[in-house]
Amino acid sequence: MRDRYPGNTWADVARRDGDLPDVLAIQSNPDQDLSDIGFARYTDQAFFDAEMERVWKRVWQFACREEHVAETGDFFVYDIGRQSVLIMRGEDGLKAFYNSCLHRGTKLKPSGACGWSADITCPFHNWQWKLDGSFKGMPCDFEFPQVDKATANLVEVQVDTWNGMVFVNFDPAAKPLVDYLEVLPEHFRNWDLTGWYVATHVRKHLPGNWKLSMEAFMEAYHTPYVHPEMTNVVGDHNMQHDVFSKHVSRDLCAMASSSPTSTAQLSEQDLLDMMLVADGKMVGERPRVPEGKTARWVMAEQLREQMLQQYDLDYSQHSVPEMIDSLKYHLFPNVMIYPAPGLCLIQQFRPDGHDRDRSTFDQYVLHPKPRDGNFEVAEVEVITEEQSFTSVASMDPFLASVLDQDTDIMRLQREGMYASGKGAQTLSVYQESRIRHFHHTLDQYIGEQAG
Asked: Coiled-coil regions in this chain (predicted)?
């Protein structure tokens, strides 16, 4: 195990309240090549084009949640670069199609669309398909004797689901999703998100390459300097960083525990009273910390009680970190999944259209489905680079301000990459090891296809 910040580790903090489940007790951070990583990977158009062709057309990628396409006729449009996928719920289940009419190529549904449709109809000349993609009809069909109506079906894209999430893959020869997920199904065996739904969905347009934007969320080396108010109540430099396989890595961050960079001397009651980083709607009033217990234990107990009373969800067997900590899994290339009930999120990073210098960041906040089954899936709220996350009424104000801090720095980073005389970045051995691993996997995809 490589060197890391001195003092208590995440595991030390987590074990104060009991044993860790096996899946969180694992530590895996193998040695890596410590060479610098060139900025051309972010700024060069040829590299961006190679990503679009050799990565995005080959990987399984998160497209939407199952609740977006829960009923027959529900659809969701997923875009990546110039590619667009129409995901449909038919009577026989989910299917996904290239979002392009077989007549003149018109998009069948506009980018970002989500809703319900009795069939699939082109808005230009009214060619129609059934929900399963089979051909339904066209105006003036006598004008097209060359079209075999029995086989004029929409071209399919691979689609599959896992843990309430819908994934697509453009490669018809790609291995099954369950294989691509590697260790995730086993790690998430007790973290079932199928009974949760999207309560808030915010998309922000960002002034940086999609990798630049994502990597800001793959380390906490910046936290004491970008988020100084968090250091008293959130671990950062003592986070645990694990690399498991080609597609999966994670970081584990303790809530209600001071950073090793903090100079504050806080009691457990102070930590509980100051604890702000969580989904505010999932955390109630702060009681007193019993003697011999920790603020973390109190928060976990409080959340277990709330989950049981309000949602009939029994978390009595879940450890304290499983309830309240930031357990952030990264699935290559661009999605992060946080399964803990106290901070249940999905974050997604994509190129903004086909612009190498801009990206979009989607944050999905998940809540448990109510007992009565009545809930409304949040529509996406889109904000520009200049707008603050705090302008989104549905977002927790403190979490929104933290995201502002994360994203406000990105334009400076992008401009600095272009201005650099060095032409490369030097990553830390441990805290930024997952970024280095990500680039290694990226190279494998680009190199494999090129060879």
From this structure: none
